[in-house]
Each structure stands twice: as C-alpha cells, then as structure tokens.
Design goal:
Elements (H helix, E strand, L loop, with lengths): L1 H5 L23 H7 L6 H8 L5 H23 L12 E2 L21 H11 L4 H7 L7 E2 L8 E2 L12 H8 L2 E4 L10 E4 L13 E2 L1 H4 L27 H7 L15 H9 L17 H9 L1 H17 L6 E2 L5 E6 L18 H11 L6 H4 L9 E6 L16 H14 L1
Antiparallel strand pairs: 1-7, 2-3, 4-5, 5-6, 8-9
Helix pairs in contact: 3-15, 4-15, 6-11, 6-12, 7-9, 7-11, 11-12, 13-15
C-alpha cells in the first residue's frame, strides 16, 4: 500500500500522500486492504479508531513500518541478525491529497524491466541503483496474485516471506529461473519461475521473479547486451559464486537443473542453454545493480543501511517542513491502550488465533522496545501513567512512540493479528 502510494512521485507531484486511484488496474487489490477489509480488518478502520491525530498520509507510512519492524523481529528471533531502525529516520507532517489524477501510468510496468525501474525509481523518485535495489527488497514480504496483478507466486519462499530479510537478493542470485509465459492465459503477463532442484512444485509454494527484479542483476553479455525479458528468452539466470552458494544453502537452493557438480557451467546448461552468454555470464553479471545485489545477499547490515536511506527518501518525497520525533511535545498523560479483550468494534479485538498470539509477542519483542514494554500485553498496559507524546497534539507524535510498542498496539495490532 505505502509503496504504491509513493512510487507515483515525479516532478514534484505525488509521493506519500495517501492518494491512490483504486480504479487503476495497477492498484487492484489495495481497496481490500485500505477500505473493504482483509481478513476482517482494514487500514481505514484502524486509522479512524486509533490514529486520526496524524494525517492518513503519515499513517500509511507508519503502518508499513510497523509491519516491517514486526516481521524483522520474527527474523531476528530465528537467527542472529542486525536490527532494523526506522524510528530514527521517521518524520511526520505529511499532507493527505484529495486528488491525484496525475498518478496514472507512473507505477513501473514489470514487463519493461529496468527501463521501468529507471523511470520510476531513479528519474522520478531520485534514487540511485543501489537504493532502488535495496528498496525492492520489500518484495520479500508477501506474494503476487493473479486476481490482483496478473502474476502468481512468492518472491521468496513462503517461510521467508513472513520475515523481512535479505532472502530476496539471495534468491535472485542463487536459484535457477526460467521464463513462465502467459500467466493464466494472459499474453501480457510474463514472469520467471524457480527451476532448480530446491523448488516447491505446489501451486501455493510457487516462487517467481518479475523482469523488474531479474534486470537488477542480469543482462545479455557482449557490447550490445540487451535486457533479459521473460517473453523473449529461454534461459534461466543463476550465479555460480561461492559466497552466494553458501548463503542459499539453508533455503535448499542448489545449482540450476540439478545438484552441485564438479562443473558448474555444465550444470547450468541443463536449463539455461549451451551459450556462455545466455542470460548473462553467471560469473560476471552486468545488470545495473548487480554489485549492490551481491553485497546485500551476503551482508544484511549493508542492505539495511541502504534500505533505510532509500525508504526515507521515498516516503519524504514531495513533502516539506516534516518534523522529527525529537520535536514531539510531551506531557504526563493516562494512555489507554486497545485491549485484546475489548468489544468487537475494536479493530484489534476478538482474535484468538495462534497468528494473533504470535503477532502480539513479536510486537512486544521489537528491538526498539524497552525492557518493561517487552513483557507487556495490550491489556496489562491499559490505563498506565506514563510520559508519552501528547495525544491531543495536532502533530500526533504518540503514533510513533517506540518507548513501548505503542505504534503496533495503537495503530497496527488488529492488522498484524490478522495478517501475519
């Protein structure tokens, strides 16, 4: 949702302004998240009940950051990994736009590969290739559905798609990919599907990449090497790099077409074709962000640093006079946290599923939480006397108070309980 909101920025128009044309086919499926409700909860419900002290434009950024922080915490709980800090860079004061007719056609068309990435992320949003690649790691979370975008599958495997990590980059480099044309019979929709021995062959486990993903790393070799496009190639892209092979080992990824062998090139030819330059030289990829992708695949800290930089630019484009959290007014106030046992009208209520319990645990274990907040539940923090940003202030600073997990408890508890 936040990404579709800010990707329309160009020439001083658009950006994170909470204006999204739901009739635009590029935004199919977003209305369920924002207004209609998905899994029994909608962003609009959460915003109206808990977060009107900030603009809707600010809230959509906050909600996205809450999901990334929560799913990053899930990843950190599984492995030793660097934390994600979005609090330090967050600034508030965005204006919600009422109309945005100019936005039509500004989102990148996946079929066009890096030409579309260049137009949207570099020419429009002012990012460089390293930042564009870092930002595209949001594809790690979630999946594409034919009913919405016309594409089908996970950018990462289903398990890693619940964790905000660097698996997107590892997958690009260390898994085999072959063209998958005319998705569900639509000749205008083409993608890449995982082809190596570690793939999940079930419908629900299907892994894929778009041309806009693959192009970050791969181009045809030669002085006039063109783009790698799914509707024009019969090969897969795969990098026989020792450090990347090691990074993908835990995901079950192996050489394209079969198990690792003494001759990597011979293994690659089983599904990539006999020419050394098919989909680019596997040892020396020439895509515009290939070095950044390789760095991100092997070092999460390097990726997170670039991601925060890119994310901050993306969500602040088009806004002036934004204020940091250090400028929030504070007052001693009695805060009322939404309780998990509150009435059914509360977006965060009546969820007793294991996913709900897991989400509240992750929220409490957010790396930016204080020790006493870490042991708190929504009900136990009710009516507590605490020093917090002023809830009555027009700035609405309380919405991004990371002294305790108030961001998730106030603004995103219901969403996280149902969606994660």
């Amino acid at each position: 949702m936040a990404g579709h909101d800010f990707m329309d920025y160009a020439n001083g128009q658009g950006g994170s302004d909470a204006c999204t044309d739901m009739s635009d086919p590029d935004n199919a499926g977003l209305s369920a998240c924002l207004a209609s409700g998905e899994h029994g909860i909608s962003l609009a419900q959460v915003y109206q009940q808990f977060c009107t002290s900030v603009s809707l434009a600010d809230f959509l950024v906050i909600a996205a950051e809450a999901v990334m922080m929560s799913t990053r915490a899930r990843h950190q709980a599984a492995v030793s990994a660097p934390s994600l800090d979005l609090k330090s860079s967050f600034r508030y004061g965005r204006t919600t736009a009422q109309t945005c007719g100019f936005a039509e056609g500004r989102l990148p068309n996946p079929e066009r590969g890096c030409d579309a990435v260049q137009e949207t992320f570099l020419d429009g949003m002012g990012l460089d290739w390293t930042e564009a690649a870092a930002l595209m790691a949001v594809h790690t979370l979630g999946r594409a559905q034919v009913s919405n975008s016309g594409y089908h599958g996970w950018w990462s495997d289903p398990e890693n798609s619940r964790r905000f990590n660097n698996d997107y980059f590892v997958s690009l480099l260390a898994k085999g990919w072959v063209p998958e044309r005319s998705i569900s019979g639509n000749t205008a929709k083409n993608q890449w599907e995982r082809s190596d021995i570690g793939r999940d062959t079930t419908f629900d486990g299907h892994e894929m990449m778009l041309n806009t993903d693959m192009c970050l790393v791969y181009r045809e070799t030669g002085p006039n090497g063109g783009p790698v496009l799914a509707d024009q190639h019969t090969c897969c892209a795969w990098l026989a790099s020792p450090e990347i092979r090691g990074a993908v080992a835990s995901n079950g990824g192996e050489y394209c077409g079969g198990a690792p062998g003494p001759d990597p090139r011979q293994e690659r030819q089983k599904c990539c074709g006999p020419q050394q330059g098919d989909c680019g030289d596997e040892r020396n990829p020439t895509g515009p962000a290939q070095q950044a992708v390789r760095n991100f695949a092997t070092d999460e800290a390097v990726w997170l640093e670039a991601f925060v930089r890119a994310w901050t630019k993306a969500v602040e484009n088009g806004h002036t006079g934004l204020k940091s959290l250090g400028q929030c007014p504070t007052t001693s106030t009695t805060s009322s946290m939404p309780s998990s046992s509150s009435s059914s009208s509360s977006p965060g209520s009546s969820s007793t599923s294991s996913a709900g319990a897991s989400s509240s645990t992750e929220a409490a274990s957010s790396p930016s939480s204080t020790s006493d907040a870490g042991s708190s539940s929504p009900s136990s923090t009710s009516n507590s006397e605490t020093q917090t940003p002023d809830l009555t202030s027009s700035s609405g600073c309380a919405t991004w108070d990371f002294a305790g997990p108030r961001l998730i408890l106030i603004c995103s508890l219901g969403m996280l309980r149902r969606l994660l």
